[in-house]
Amino acid sequence: MNNNYSLAIHGGAGTILPEHLTPEKEKSYHEALAEALFEGEKILKGEGSSLDAVERAVQVLEDCPLFNAGKGSVYGNNGIHETEASIMYGKGLQAGAAAGLQHIKNPISLAKKVLLAEDFVYLIGEGAETFAKQEGMEFVDQEYFHTEERYLQWQAAMGSDKVVLDHDGERKFGTVGAVALDLNGNLAAATSTGGLTNKRFGRLGDSSVVGSGTYANNDTCAISCTGYGEYFLRAVVAYDISAMMEYGGLSLTEACDKVVKDKLVKMQGEGGVIAVDAKGNIDLCFNSAGMYRGAVSSNLEAFTAIYDKK
Fold first, then answer.
1. Where is the site labelled Cleavage (predicted)?
2. pTM > 0.90: yes or no
3. Which domain holds residue 24?
């Protein structure tokens, strides 16, 4: 058994500047991130699994309307909220993912059910919801996902073919995620999102794609991504970081910097990652103006941050 645990979370990255947030709104973000950290750490402290810890931390963020996942998910071009999520356990490379969901209160929990089922890794749409019903999961009406802010963003984008990056006139990617190392030395990662405002044609991002938005391997690291999904898909960001550690001998920070601050920048891909390695080292790496984030470990007091400087 390890003597240490680590947990990191994110609530999206992008052009997040002090002038974009009122003090009240900023306080609300910090409180939500702190609650997610508290709930996840409670599991890790109690010798629970990293898999359960990342699921719980992401559930808290999904239940908060401030983030583009679960409750606060954005509207698609057709006026429908569709969510996606994935989760991975570093022990045995177990993974589960679900996408095209319209009625699942906590998409991350469905992804975990898929992981535990072991017969498949990735379910979408109606079939995924049929499986969820069979598993006794909580369903909600589309109205549950509505928030006035998301509705106004969608109204502003209607009539055009453009997708909107989550905030009015701001580039912000509202994905949520968590990564953790537990006392048994097992790593886990989880990511959940509502996608892009005004998305069309059943568009999916990287959040539910194992290896692109989420990855965990006990030999290397656990990664959860947030950013413009198309770039993270093309760069296979989460796995690329792990591969650089496994085959290139890079440290966690070196690998994150190489992928996020070099490779992605050259592709004009904006966003960031949260990462923890097999020793419990944490890295919160992004190439945007800010990232809603937080971390705690057996050696680190819990903190939350939004802008480039903590």
1. 174-175
2. yes
3. 6-307
